[in-house]
Amino acid sequence: MRSPIPDYLEEMLGIVRSDSTGERANYIQALATADPEVLSAAFATVDGVIYAAGDANQEISIQSISKPFVYALALADRGFDTVLANVGVEPTGEAFNEISLDSQGRPRNPMINAGAITAHALIRGPEASPPERMAAVLEGLSAFAGRTLEVDEELVSNELGQAHRNLAIAHMLASYGILPTDPRAAVEGYTRQCALLVTTKDLAIMAATLANDGVNPLTGVRVVDAAIVRQVLSVMATCGMYDAAGDWFTQVGIPAKSGVAGGIIGALPGQVGIATVSPRLDRHGNSIRGVSLFERFSGDMGLHLMEVPPPVSSAIRRSRTLDAVGTVLRVVEIQGSIRFAAAERIVREFASGRCTESMIALDLTEADSLDDVARRMLLEVTRRLALEGREVFLIDPAPLIPDPDPGEGARLTVYRSLEDLLSTRGGVTSAASNT
Amino acid sequence: MRSPIPDYLEEMLGIVRSDSTGERANYIQALATADPEVLSAAFATVDGVIYAAGDANQEISIQSISKPFVYALALADRGFDTVLANVGVEPTGEAFNEISLDSQGRPRNPMINAGAITAHALIRGPEASPPERMAAVLEGLSAFAGRTLEVDEELVSNELGQAHRNLAIAHMLASYGILPTDPRAAVEGYTRQCALLVTTKDLAIMAATLANDGVNPLTGVRVVDAAIVRQVLSVMATCGMYDAAGDWFTQVGIPAKSGVAGGIIGALPGQVGIATVSPRLDRHGNSIRGVSLFERFSGDMGLHLMEVPPPVSSAIRRSRTLDAVGTVLRVVEIQGSIRFAAAERIVREFASGRCTESMIALDLTEADSLDDVARRMLLEVTRRLALEGREVFLIDPAPLIPDPDPGEGARLTVYRSLEDLLSTRGGVTSAASNT
Amino acid sequence: MRSPIPDYLEEMLGIVRSDSTGERANYIQALATADPEVLSAAFATVDGVIYAAGDANQEISIQSISKPFVYALALADRGFDTVLANVGVEPTGEAFNEISLDSQGRPRNPMINAGAITAHALIRGPEASPPERMAAVLEGLSAFAGRTLEVDEELVSNELGQAHRNLAIAHMLASYGILPTDPRAAVEGYTRQCALLVTTKDLAIMAATLANDGVNPLTGVRVVDAAIVRQVLSVMATCGMYDAAGDWFTQVGIPAKSGVAGGIIGALPGQVGIATVSPRLDRHGNSIRGVSLFERFSGDMGLHLMEVPPPVSSAIRRSRTLDAVGTVLRVVEIQGSIRFAAAERIVREFASGRCTESMIALDLTEADSLDDVARRMLLEVTRRLALEGREVFLIDPAPLIPDPDPGEGARLTVYRSLEDLLSTRGGVTSAASNT
Amino acid sequence: MRSPIPDYLEEMLGIVRSDSTGERANYIQALATADPEVLSAAFATVDGVIYAAGDANQEISIQSISKPFVYALALADRGFDTVLANVGVEPTGEAFNEISLDSQGRPRNPMINAGAITAHALIRGPEASPPERMAAVLEGLSAFAGRTLEVDEELVSNELGQAHRNLAIAHMLASYGILPTDPRAAVEGYTRQCALLVTTKDLAIMAATLANDGVNPLTGVRVVDAAIVRQVLSVMATCGMYDAAGDWFTQVGIPAKSGVAGGIIGALPGQVGIATVSPRLDRHGNSIRGVSLFERFSGDMGLHLMEVPPPVSSAIRRSRTLDAVGTVLRVVEIQGSIRFAAAERIVREFASGRCTESMIALDLTEADSLDDVARRMLLEVTRRLALEGREVFLIDPAPLIPDPDPGEGARLTVYRSLEDLLSTRGGVTSAASNT
Predict the structure, then answer these.
(1) Which residues contact C18 (CB under 8 A, 6 or more apart)?
(2) Cα angle C128, C133, C135; round to 5
(3) Of residues D301, D303, D312, the one with CA closest to residue D334
(4) Which residues sit opposite D2 in a β-bridge?
(5) Contact residues for C34 (Cβ-Cβ < 8 A; gap 6+)
(6) Residue B143 exposed, middle or buried by CB count within 10 Å (0-12, 13-18, 19+)
(7) What is residue B304's three-state secondary structure?
């Protein structure tokens, strides 16, 4: 069977191809003369499968799409405190090339040029030479992409001849003491960062690395840690699409970033990285066909962050009692992915007063995953049950709760299966499901 | 066993209680003399359980927390086109009482006063009398809360004596032709809407109604539809905390709204509605202890929207072949909640070329839920398999795919269980799991 | 001989009449349907002669031209401190109906609506009833015009129906505690003030009252004092023509104010009051033909404030010595209008060491006027000469220095003519002019 | 006799010396370590006399005081059209180092850094090399000062190390296509211009050159023409004191400019150039003692532009008839400085119908000066009288109206004195004064 996903992508490209409105970026020759008909889309799953359609192997310059990734690298390299002291996280309602400094002289966020130049300049600290800094940026962006990226040096020369606005921004930042380095070097480095060549597939993988919590799904390399991913996705969500951030969030609802060469990426946590390329831009500087594709993807695939997921049937697969070893054993079987809401239902089962038995087995065999809070909540349940004098068993073949510590005074015995428990503690006499 | 959740809430209240910084709103007597030590928090689950701690039954005025709900009512009452023509969705980076009109004269979003007054005035259209409009607002907010709310008329008088800024805003809107009604009536109605009395529990239920896709989890009444919920949550996410929206999104990551009487609500889609009350405010007008509680809730419970969920072990529980009725039957068992990413893995199983059998059974017995896109993707799989000449069976006891229509030409037989299928089509000869 | 001045005015009207660009104010019916061809100009001299051409007796509503006069009345009524605490004096670079409050919440100047509404509301203090306040405004503006002006009450009703922006401004001012009265009453009073009916001749006389240092040249009544006139003319110079203030100052250089009904006034200190009327406005809200007329008047008549006056031949008409009463008398004859620069030249004559005689007569017979500083400088000269032991005489028939007090110890004898001096002190023997 | 003017200056310095509030500019070492107690004031008359007190020969860097002069040079060098296309004339209400571009991307005026850098860069056109441009600026400023000024090159180096804000401004201007030259070269040239060393006396002479209509009163050299002086003084009046322009205009009323090294100049057309130096600045960047001195000078000496001058007794000294050559001759004697207002009174005399004689003599012997419009108005009078068939004579010894041309058909005979007229035309029989 052919996967329907590439077919879906092709179909979507077909639909948007007819829209030839908008204009290519025209401030430099290289962008103004790009083939306006280039069109592509790619999905990269968090386990590394890429679906692509159209001109997905054609290289474009990454431009502003580099911003979230270099912000991530700056956070990794210099820490949250330093970076947040120099670049804010507030949306501006203004265009990307506005200076937009806040009352402390900080760029309002890292998605506008002022913030992006600052993020670039922070990398490796003020002592680093521009080539050292650029090497670190190049290495980091390549790690996000899963292959070694290259700079289009001709484009760099081209852009530097038109870099007055960025130079203005950088000198202004320097005048406020925000920029730790020479303004011209910062602009040159930033310009070089923007001239990295990427394919639509590269962009999808870069997005998927964010969606996969910072681990590149192709290479398996952790590029940045989870706290940084959360920060970067948050900023993309509120500031990624310039002065159209609110429109994008309501219409598409995917943390995203666009670039002036026509690329857009979107990253949906835990699910997928998406990239599109089409050079004609709207007045905000976002690719027209790209925005249209993302709107369709979001709607068709239920990818909007604010899409309320369908109700989970139940976190408790079954709750029953077994007559075991001369007493009654309550076995509560957990299923699915357990986060706060599901854990709450499990807690509720025990707090309901329904489970009065003196021996309790919590069976995680059918559970898919537990997040931190779920793990802590289940351990708290075992602790409380133990404090009430009950004997508590955890059946956890995976294990999903390695080395469980229910807290002082509480005892918790772990088995790989119910059978192990029963065979250890004595056979079952009879069983009655009461859920 | 006592549920640990109320204990957790109490513990958190205990931690933040020591912070007595900030000031009560002081522009009117009633707020300036409110008991500054009132402190409470409540969680309401999407199936209607409320956990509360502190002064959770004490009434406060809802104030700006009414804004997202009245925006929802306006969308329901007048449609997206009309509302969006009069109120934007862009964050402003400005304080709540800034006029903040965009280039079309529209308030930038419905969370600032200008947008909220406009949203109020839109309800029931320009022909409605102010009492009719207020009745609709009261009825709508009561539906969100699940009980009939009442207006604090003394507070209304109090506020109207200090309503110069809102009157300025309303007259300015009228001068741009944005406000469809008399500015003084709009301000009076809006002021009355803000003076509705709610408890912390009410606020949690109101938030939970959004988290539950528009259905009040206490009453089961659908208050607004899913598209409206998505819009409202999006606007809360980007504009709900005024000029601290970016800080809130990165730090807390829960769509939220605060009010000047000290309330804050947060709604996490599909999971939980949260409310806190504490009257002392920071310079943005947000409750200081409330913000602190939300930061703790988000961190402790993994509620941040950009928290990447733990990887799902697998959407495919088991894929095996059975020798049945003289041929080989491929049985693919699905488990968990299936949205796009999980559906993609199922598609991939069939597109891999591994499943070459001429009879295929898709077993949904262990699946918890399917969203729209998952449903469409699985049906597309069955259609494509059928087009290849295979015979496809759906085992769907719930059913999760009612009345499946795989498309023209394709045949799909549905069974309630594998046993039904086998007994109908003939017994199993032998079985081999290959996943 | 017919005076050429009315002919000049007619000629200018003829030239600008061909320009029919611009639009009448269209926010209310009465202005939108005004005869667009009305055209007039008038000059009023500081001694009360009026030259007029075109429709100079036709009444229009005074509109914003009332602003400088009501500002003057507020200063007279409430004092500089109170008025300056509530309204600033800085140009804004913004349109007249911008709110433009400074960091203290004050309107930036009294020529924008916010400042003008505040100035109106200040009159007679917060205790005055609106009718009392309006009576004072009416009386004051009538004193500037030299006749009792009347309000067009139909226009008032008309304007009040469209007063949303002014109401917004007034409520905003109230919210900052700037407006001492009820915002609606302030806007209603201000609207009534703007609806006073005036002819072009009235406007010229009003302007001439400012040019004549606050004394109405027709009635001889002092309406406001000199310090207020200086303040009002200063504010007109920098803020009178809205966001085109700099253009106006460089091109025309006459303190001025325009109104939306098509009037413009200009006042050149000590020289002339000018008024023009033509209803079609440019995008700043200034009458197009009116601006054109003022540009011609300024250029043709050398009225630009920054026009450097031709050098005065000499303040000293003649300096000679006479042999009188057995000694030599130095007679220094002063001529013309003596302000600082001229007085400095007289001072220089004595400080030069040229006048060594022991008897000195300062002859003011041919001097036209002395301002304060000139008076003080000449007295200082007499005091210093006396301190050197010389005998000093003042010949002052007017007198231009009444009751001269040269300071302690100095003696100064005043005569009505040189003849008086000589006949008193003894005849002239011989005379030698040395200047 | 010692002139009281230096004594007055000393006295004023003594009064303000006690005020040691404010801070020296501290962005560079050279300014931050300047002697804060330096204090001086100087007056320069339009005929070249300098009065000075305090440290008036000490050199400081000219800084922003160079702005009006380089603006004047740009106007002279490139013409009004080119300069106005690149730099506006509107006050900004903002600080000097705000970028403040108008909707066309032009700096709002030449007194803010953006406009001053542009004015500098315009000189000699885009083809000129930076040294050529600087040579022209140096030559021009030296012409204003009347001596060859020198650059403090150490200060230039110092300033260039801190020039980020100006570089930001220059690059921003370049990005809008406003700056015709390389931004770094423009900033370097502008910085060098600001580092010219001047004494307080130099500054007073520079101001006096403006007050003297563009002619240096020391050297007699015309530096720029009258139209440029008018433009420059206008811009100084409205934009010279940054965001305190309105305060300055109402309080002081003298076109002025301040510099960050502590200098202030003021130029009162036709009267005097003033300069003060004291390094401690207020929050606007204006010298605190300097502002205080100017307030005193303006008040004490009646120098406020909006000071209404005392009424001129009469432009007509005497109007009488003489019986001459068998007919009656009307002799009208003019006195004083005749500008529009005085000329109007002369016109009025003839238009009154009082002068019915067939022979008319206009006697300018006692007139000090006539400006253009006065000259034209008097000629128009002679023309009209001639058209009525009267014989008209002009008695003009100076002459104040060289080569008078009363227009076609009119005849006008000029004499050097009344005696000449009478002796030529026949003796006087009898004389009767009727004024």
Answers:
(1) none
(2) 130
(3) D312
(4) none
(5) C24, C60, C261, C262, C279
(6) buried
(7) coil
Q: What residues of D are in contact with residue A174 (Cβ under 8 Å)? A: 164, 168
Contact list, C165 vs chain B (CB under 8 Å): 171-172, 175
Which residues share a beta bridge with A412?
A: A392
Other beta carbons less than 10 A from residue B185's beta carbon: 18
The residue type found at A286 is: N
Mind telling me the catalytic residues of C? 64, 67, 190, 242, 260
Instruction: In whole angstroms, give the CA distance from residue A108 to residue A97.
Output: 12
Cross-chain Cβ contact A183/D167 below 8 Å: yes
Partners of B432 in the β-ladder = B321
CA-to-CA distance for D435 and D433, rounded, in angstroms? 6
Question: Do the Cβ atoms of C372 and D302 come closer than 8 Å?
Answer: yes
Q: Kindly report the number of other CB atoms within 10 A of residue A405's CB atom.
A: 11
Cα(D83)–Cα(D71) distance, rounded to whole angstroms?
Answer: 9
State yes or no: is B257 an active-site residue. no
**Backbone phi, then psi, for B330, in 5-degree steps?**
-90, 125
Structure tokens at A312: 């989970």
What does DSSP say about strands A263-268 and A256-258: parallel, antiparallel, or unpaired? antiparallel
Which residues lie closer than 8 Å to C387 by C-beta, 6 or more apart? C409, C410
Rounded to 10 deg, the angle between the A226-239 and B226-239 helix axes is 100
Nearest to D384 among C1, C309, C368 (CB): C1
Cα–Cα distance, B79 to B73 (Å, whole number): 10
Specify which residues B360 forms β-bridges with: B330, B392
* Cα of D225 vs its chain's centroid, Å: 11
Q: Which residues of chain C have pLDDT under 50?
A: 430-435
Place of tokens 């302007």: C207
Q: Is B97 exposed, middle or buried (0-12, 13-18, 19+ CB in 10 A)?
A: middle
| Rounded Cα distance, B136 and D235, in Å | 59
SS3 C66: helix
Residue type, B48: G
Cα–Cα distance measured from residue C73 to residue B228, given in angstroms and rounded to the nearest whole number: 56
Give the span between the Cα atoms of D66 and D240, in whole angstroms. 11
pLDDT tens for residues D164-210?
999 999 999 999 899 989 999 999 999 999 999 999 999 999 999 99
- Residue D312 is predicted with a pLDDT of 63
- At C36-88, the pLDDT tens digits run 999 999 999 999 999 999 999 999 999 999 999 999 999 999 999 999 999 99
C-chain residue closest to D350, CA distance: C1
Interface C-D, measured as beta-carbon pairs within 8 A, has a size of 262
CA–CA distance, B39 with D381 (Å, rounded to integer): 90
Q: What is the pTM (predicted TM-score) of this model? A: 0.89
Residues of A in contact with B366 (CB under 8 A): 335, 366
Best probe of the D interface among C234, C236, C305, C365, by most D CBs < 10 A, is C234
A176 is a catalytic site residue: no
φ, ψ of residue C332 to 5 degrees: the values are: -110, 115
Radius of gyration of chain A (CA): 26
Q: In a 10 Å sphere around its CB, with 0-12 CB exposed, 13-18 middle and 19+ buried, how is residue D154 labelled?
A: exposed
C255 CB-near residues (< 8 Å, 6+ apart):
C210, C233, C234, C236, C237, C240, C266, C267, C268, C269, C305, D306
Cα angle: C148, vertex C238, C97; to 5 degrees:
70
Low-confidence ranges of chain B (pLDDT < 50): 430-435
Which of A94, D99, C93, B253 shows the shortest CA–CA distance to A102?
A94
User: Which structure tokens are listed for C192?
Assistant: 């009534």
Q: Which two tokens mark B184? A: 């003084």
Residues of A in contact with B71 (CB under 8 A): none
Structure tokens at C368: 């036209």
Which amino acid, C13? L
Dist CA B32 CA B162 (whole Å)? 13
